[in-house]
Each structure stands twice: as C-alpha cells, then as structure tokens.
C-alpha cells in the first residue's frame, strides 16, 4: 500500500478504472446506445429511482416504446406523460423532460446539443445530467458526481470534509474533473466510477481486497466515509382525504401544488371537518422526501357534496389511465376492490 500521506496518482487511478470497467461492466440498455435521448431518459429516471425499478418493472422500456424521441415526447399530452411516469414519483422530472423536448425541437431544430454549456441550459438539467449525457452520448471529458461517485472519491482521497458542504462539493467536482480529463475514454471512466460505487465501494462492507484501485486508495476506515452534515429529521404528517363513489365514477381532485401538479388524487377532507372527521374507511402510510405520511381515507361528509372546479367525477373506465401518485393509486384500488360503500347518487 502507498503512503497514506501521498497524493493519489490520478493517471494511474483513471487507467485502472477504465481497464477494470472494460472487463467487468454491467450490461444496461443505456450503455448499448449513443443516443442522447435514450441516455437522458435513463439518467433522469435513475436520479431518484433504483435500477431494479427502472429496468425490472419496465419503466424504461415502456417510456422509450411510447415516447421514442424528443419529437414524440414534445407532442404528447401532459396527462399521458405523467401516466407513463406514474409510480416513479418526483413527477417534476417527467414534466421537465417534456419541457426539454419542446426546447430541443424549437431551439435546436430537433437535434440535442453537444456543447456542454448548451446542455446545461436545457430545462431541468443540472451539472450531473449534463455531464452524464455529454460523456456517455458524445464521449466528452465532462465530470459527473452522484452519490456513488461521492463515496468513491471521498474514500480514495480519505477526505472527511462534509460532502454536502460548499467546499466539499467543489472539491468532489474538481477531483472528478481531474480524473475524466486524464483519460482518453471519458465514457468508461465516468461509468466505472459509478459502477465501483455500486459494487466494491458499497456504503457498508466495501470489498477493498477486490477493488481495482485499492493500491491507490487512501481510505483508512472506508465505512466512515463520506461524511455528511446531519440529515433533517423525518417528520410525521397526517393527510385526510375522502372517498366518494357514485354510480358514474369516483370523485378526484386535480393537484395544483408544485410537486404533483397535473396529477389526480382523492380529494382532501374539508378543513372544517378535520376536528370531527367522518368515519374512516382506510388508513395507509407512505413516505415522501423527509415526511412520513399517514393517509386517512374518510367517508365524505354530507356537507361536502358541493365541490370546487378542481374536483371531478372520473368514470370508472378512465380511472386506471388517469395519472395519479402511487400512494393514492394503491388506496383507490383497495377501496374499489372492497366495493362495499354506499353509493352517492
Ligand atoms: S479500496 Fe475500498 S474504500 Fe477504496 S475505493 Fe476501493 S472499495 Fe472503496
């Protein structure tokens, strides 16, 4: 092992990573293509979703089958876009993808730009996604830093600087840039860094003995790295909605908040009934960002039969094709399967 005080040899690390990746790369569909659209979709889906979900549950294949290119996505109805995304959560990603598709068609003549600055200027694109598309689609020496790469770099440099601090973030990007600019295969280098974090350099029990860069790594206690500022505590919140089923369908409310705008959900219980809510039909739990939500579904209160414009009876035959956040989809299906509630005329 080299002296822990010596600076890691960037050139040697880059070479080892590229060699290792050439022999051990996992086979993913987005690695078999150079199409910036297909790569972009994968990167955006994978930002907050596990590979097993994106691939194993068919989201990636379904999306590309329905929206195979920027033109198709730009021309699609928003509710259809949200419906195909349904279950992945963080719906802003889907809306931003469609905005981006519009911009590629209108501002770039339908051709995804190759200039990293132009990629970064597209709607919803941050430094990570810009670097990923630039390197994976166009082979440009642009760095990327995601959670896996953060862990790998913090360990290789044995750096206890909080990786979510301004200085820590800047340092990570500088290190990732130094590595990718050292190699003539930026595509493999970036993918190798990610894959090392998914395999040998896992959060717990890293398999350092089999790691391709073990002779360069400065980590003394790998599992203690990376260091992060304290996470915000999980907050428990209560959400109360009503289930109103008529002979024609189910009453749903169109979301207008930032996070889920354009999606439909069971209507919120009117605040005037919260202190003495109607009988409970079902209780469910779900998590979102730092919130743990208890979702109570109530019978509708008699006084709630007048509804605002955001509410609509959705016919039974259209419920499955109506875009809806996954937690509501689950409780709605369960309620409909029970089929035991009195119908409102
Ligand atoms: S030697 Fe261990 S800690 Fe260092 S990069 Fe490899 S797996 Fe991670």
Radius of gyration: 24 Å
Helix percentage range: 40-55%
Low-confidence stretches: none
- The CATH topology of the largest domain corresponds to Endonuclease III, domain 1
CATH architecture of the largest domain: Orthogonal Bundle
Compute the number of structural domains.
2
Overall mean pLDDT stands at 92
What is the assigned CATH homologous superfamily of the largest domain? Hypothetical protein, domain 2
The ordered H/E elements are HHHHHHHHHHHHEEEEEEH
Protein architecture, described:
- The chain has helices spanning about 10-25, 35-45, 50-55, 60-65, 70-75, 80-85, 90-105, 115-120, 125-140, 145-155, 165-180, 185-200, 325-340; strands at about 235-240, 250-255, 265, 280-290, 290-300, 310-315.
- The protein is α+β, with helices and mostly antiparallel strands.
- It folds into two domains: about 10-225, Hypothetical protein, domain 2 (Endonuclease III, domain 1), CATH 1.10.340; about 235-340, Nucleoside Triphosphate Pyrophosphohydrolase.
- The protein has a three-stranded mixed sheet with strand order 1-5-4, with helices on one face.
- The model has no long low-confidence stretch (mean pLDDT about 90).
- It binds iron/sulfur cluster (SF4).
- Iron/sulfur cluster binds next to helix 10.
């Amino acid at each position: 092992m080299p002296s822990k005080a010596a600076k890691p040899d960037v050139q040697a690390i880059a070479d080892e990573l590229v060699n290792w990746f050439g022999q051990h790369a996992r086979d993913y569909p987005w690695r078999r293509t150079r199409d910036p659209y297909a790569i972009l979709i994968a990167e955006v889906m994978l930002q907050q979703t596990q590979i097993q979900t994106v691939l194993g549950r068919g989201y990636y294949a379904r999306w590309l089958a329905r929206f195979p290119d920027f033109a198709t996505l730009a021309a699609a109805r928003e509710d259809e876009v949200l419906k195909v995304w349904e279950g992945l959560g963080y719906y802003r990603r889907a809306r931003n993808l469609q905005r981006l598709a519009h911009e590629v068609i209108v501002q770039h003549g339908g051709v995804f730009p190759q200039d990293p600055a132009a990629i970064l200027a597209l709607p919803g694109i941050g430094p990570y996604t810009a670097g990923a598309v630039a390197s994976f689609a166009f082979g440009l020496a642009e760095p990327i830093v995601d959670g896996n790469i953060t862990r790998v770099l913090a360990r290789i440099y044995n750096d206890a600087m909080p990786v979510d601090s301004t200085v820590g973030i800047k340092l990570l990007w500088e290190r990732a840039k130094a590595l990718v600019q050292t190699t003539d295969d930026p595509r493999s280098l970036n993918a190798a860094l990610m894959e090392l974090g998914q395999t040998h350099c896992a959060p717990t029990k890293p398999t350092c003995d089999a790691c391709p860069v073990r002779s360069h790594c400065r980590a003394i206690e790998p599992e203690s790295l990376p260091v992060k500022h304290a996470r915000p505590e999980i907050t428990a919140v209560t959400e109360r909605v009503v289930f109103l089923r008529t002979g024609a369908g189910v009453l749903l409310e169109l979301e207008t908040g930032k996070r889920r705008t354009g999606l439909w959900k069971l209507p919120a219980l009117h605040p005037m009934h919260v202190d003495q809510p109607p009988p409970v039909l079902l209780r469910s739990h779900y998590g979102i960002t730092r919130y743990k939500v208890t979702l109570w579904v109530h019978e509708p209160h008699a006084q709630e039969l007048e509804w605002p414009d955001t509410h609509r009876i959705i016919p039974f035959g259209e419920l499955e094709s109506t875009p809806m956040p996954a937690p509501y989809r689950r409780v709605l299906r369960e309620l409909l399967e029970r089929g035991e509630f009195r119908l409102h005329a």
